[in-house]
Amino acid sequence: MSTPDQPLLDIRDINVVYRGARWRSPSFHALHDVSMRIGAGETVGLVGESGSGKTTLGRAVLGLAPVTSGTVTFDGRDITHARRRERRALSRDIQVVFQDPYSSLNPAMTVESILAEPLRAQGVPGSEAAARINQLLDQIGLEADAGRRYPREFSGGQRQRIAIARALALKPRLIVCDEPVSALDLSTQARILDLLIEVQEQTGVAYLFVSHDLSVVRYICHRVAVMLKGRIVETGEGDVVTSRPEHPYTKRLLMASPIPDPVRQAERRRRYAALA
Ligand SMILES: Nc1ncnc2c1ncn2[C@@H]1O[C@H](COP(=O)(O)OP(=O)(O)OP(=O)(O)O)[C@@H](O)[C@H]1O
Ligand SMILES: [Mg+2]
């Protein structure tokens, strides 16, 4: 169980260096001494311009980026360099939703088999898996017969719902969401963000929420970290960082983003405070 002293996810001073692809091609220092903590049931946003290192930090949590120093601790356990078997076990607890619901779902598989895959990989028996799949479809707001259809038969927003259901299948405690609504139109974005909020209220899952869009982050995040050239330059309460930033870089990001929804944000903060 995570407490304020021991957060669910604790990233300390990590550095990520990508080696050059070819012999003698230069390496690239993508993250510099990055630290971040995420509590159980909390949403922490990560914003910054393209190339600042947001996806790299998410990948470091998932064990997919070359961490050269520092530690990633999950639920008190050092997972920085977890081996394959340990990673497989960790996938019960840590899941991911990507930006593009078109390429992240296998077009040759029915929705049912897409959702069954993580369950089968963890040895969940067939009958139990079938019940879980129905539950998941209901949770994300799709009809039960959606399971027999293929990803191409759904809209972008519905596909992202399916990707979210797949991430939820094993009841994870943390989901890395990498620009999960960036490919969607505005009204669909709002509905998917509401779904993520609802899922969090029901399950207590935490999100590391990567986005380049401050208004999206303001809507969904309790806290926000701002990344610039592989460093975190500002962190704080979601609505403070996204409405009264300190750092000139965040101020620039803010000027490029639409009007906030303070009423909604205040309500969300109250609900979070009531949970704590
Ligand atoms: N596998 C890799 N090998 C070498 N360099 C990489 C690799 N992946 C990312 N980089 C570099 O690391 C830096 C950070 O990339 P990253 O994808 O984390 O940025 P980002 O903030 O997610 O950007 P975007 O908003 O465009 O998604 C970039 O300069 C990128 O070119
Ligand atoms: Mg990215």
From TrEMBL:
InterPro entries: AAA+_ATPase, ABC_transp_ATP-bind, ABC_transporter-like_ATP-bd, ABC_transporter-like_CS, P-loop_NTPase. Residues 11-254 form the ABC transporter domain. One of its GO terms (molecular function) is ATP hydrolysis activity. It comes from the Bacteria. The keyword Nucleotide-binding applies. Keywords: ATP-binding, Nucleotide-binding, Transport. The keyword Transport applies. SUPFAM superfamilies: P-loop containing nucleoside triphosphate hydrolases. CDD domains: ABC_NikE_OppD_transporters. GO terms for biological process: transmembrane transport. Pfam families: ABC_tran. Belongs to the ABC transporter superfamily. This is Peptide/nickel transport system ATP-binding protein.
